[in-house]
Amino acid sequence: MNYIIEYEVCVIIFVIAIIVVFYNSHFFPSTQNKLFGSILVFTVADMILDVVTAITIEHALTMPFWINYLLNSMFYTMQIVFPVIGLFYAIAITGRLWTMYRKKILLSIVPGMIVILLLIINPFTHIFFYLDKVEGYVKTPYFYFMHVVAAMYLFIVVAYLIKNRKVLNKKQATTAIWFLLIIIFAMCIQIIIPRLLILGPAIGISVIVMYFMLKNPSNMIDYVTKAFNYNGFVTCLIEIITEKKSLNMIAIEIHDLLYIKRIFGIKSTNNLLWEISSFLRGDLKQSWVFRITDSRFIIITQKRSKHEDLKMKISQRFTKPWSINSTKVMPSVVVCCVGDLNGSHYGMDNLVNMIESALVNAVVKSENKPFYIVENCNIEDFSHTLSIESALHDVFEKGTGLVVYYQPIYSLLRKRFIGLEALVRFEHPTLGLLLPSEFLSIVERNGHIQKLDQIVVSKVCDFVNHYTPFEELDLDFICINLSAAEFASCSMSDDLTDILVKNMKHPEKIFFEVTETIAASSKENLKQCMNQYISLGYRFALDDFGTGYSNISQIVAQPFSLIKIDQSLLQTSHKVIDYIISMIESLDKMTLIEGVETKEHFDMVKNMKADLLQGFYFAKPMSEDMLLPFIHEYKIDKV
Description:
alpha/beta; 3 domains; about 15% strand; single chain; about 650 residues; Rhopdopsin 7-helix transmembrane proteins; eight-stranded mixed beta barrel; Alpha-Beta Plaits; TIM Barrel; elongated; 18 strands; about 55% helix
């Protein structure tokens, strides 16, 4: 029989070109793409063997029989292995390859393994084909059993894809269906016209189409930088964790990107991000670059040597300026490097959160340096933060765990406590009593900060209504801290207002504390919100005065009734503090000195013009149960 091989030879050349491009391109490191690479290799091997066996069969009588037995057995083995890999590929694109039971996987390859074993012993048993000195190459009646098994796999793939069609995107589904239809049609033609080698070319053409349609999906690419995006990052981590591989990670945070964007505009900033991404993607072998937030890149490598090389290149490049519209700019960059990380030990969510915590910590430690790198970041140091985050998960659903402590405020003139500051704490059975510095940033990051404000205000209302501290303890006021989120708009939140209207009987005795940072950054909104609550009888206090954001004009501009002077001013001279107090009180505003922690501090401030003092020297924050007897029994001896 004379076989027509020209079409197949042409397709072989095209598929080899695709293989060269594929393995020299930077494809996403997913199981799906790895299987596709295997499909490419097996396709070429299958077609080459198809052409070679077509030639050797034509010359079967003039060649040693063992050559034909060997080559044809290899070819038919490829014909069985190919649909098995196709089945695994179909499972991979639905994202369920690593979640399938091993028994199902083993069961799926049993028919193929049986055929392959029969092919191995075929030279001795002649089950599928044999070579005769007169007729040459001869197929047995069982020969078509191999086609039946191959077709069975293809129909299983079709059934599986139909069953799981909802998890496929339109492009994946369309490509898979056409791929299968072309192959099934080609198999039918091949059986009817054996001399026309059409099955190999059909498979090759289908694979070429798959390459162009299913390469790195657009939903995994960041359109600004052409790096992989957060979707790609999550998929990559899932792959690595599922396969229980170690990884090396470099996280890069450009923490002044908003400032750059404000100065140079969005377009120029995007050009800068493109330049940074191009540099990071410059040597892509064995590394993958992701842009997971507006200002954050992460590079994943699996080889430690590559990781160390990238660290050195990043350190060298980011200590030099970048160009924006011919202007030299030095972005403030923080880098955290994590080596030999066992992702499966932490899980994806914990891993992402620990990287987040490590970067936040590094930004704080960088002290606004243009470039700061943590070369060997131990993310296990941030496991405590993750434990807190996990513990906080149910707090805002169940409303348990958050408690309010109160720190008494002392009056020098009246020689007794006349006020309290309400301070939130997180009480946990295993983590213990946590301070705001340990959990507030997590609450803010998770979008629960306003809910926290509402819980604190509600608990203060309950305290006032239950213990009647203004009558029982003869207190004048209670200070409650409010977060910046309350002043994000020009009016206070309805939920917070409802709590106060329904539960607070003494609005005139409540100060809402606002930090200097909020006062400096939300001036117009703040003033409108303050006036809204002042009209209801509440008053406001400016907290942390002296930390660098406010000035006297700021105090004049906003309707604060109480100014709390920060502890840092205690390091200045007596005259400076006296001057500040005199100036504030001339504006008919009360003053309070915070952070009076020691006898030395008290000796310094007792002869100043300040009346109200707060600090550990007088009392630490305490629970409601401890507060009442403490104030009743407090002795003035040390004062």
